[in-house]
Amino acid sequence: MVNTDEQNNWQSVVKTVKKLDPKKLEIVKSTLPVVKEHGEAITKRFYQRLFEHHPELKNIFNMTHQITGHQPKALADAVYAAAANIEDMSPIMSALERIGQKHRSLNIKPEHYPIVGENLLGAIKEILGDAATDEIMNAWADAYDVISDVFIRMENQLYKNAETQSGGWAGFKDFVIDKKVDESDIITSFYLKPKDGKQLPVFIPGQYITVKVEIEQEKYTHLRQYSLSDRPGLDYYRISVKREDPIREGLPPGVVSTDLHKYFNEGDILPISSPAGDFYLDINSQEPVVLISGGVGLTPLTSMLNYIANEQPERKVYYIQAARNGNVHAFRTHVRNVSGQHPNVKSYFIYEKPTESDKEMHYFDKEGFITLEWLKEVLPSNKAQFYFCGPTMFMKVVNSILKEWGVPEQDIHYEFFGTFGNLEDEV
Question: Which residue has the higher pLDDT, 427 or 342?
Answer without folding.
Answer: 342
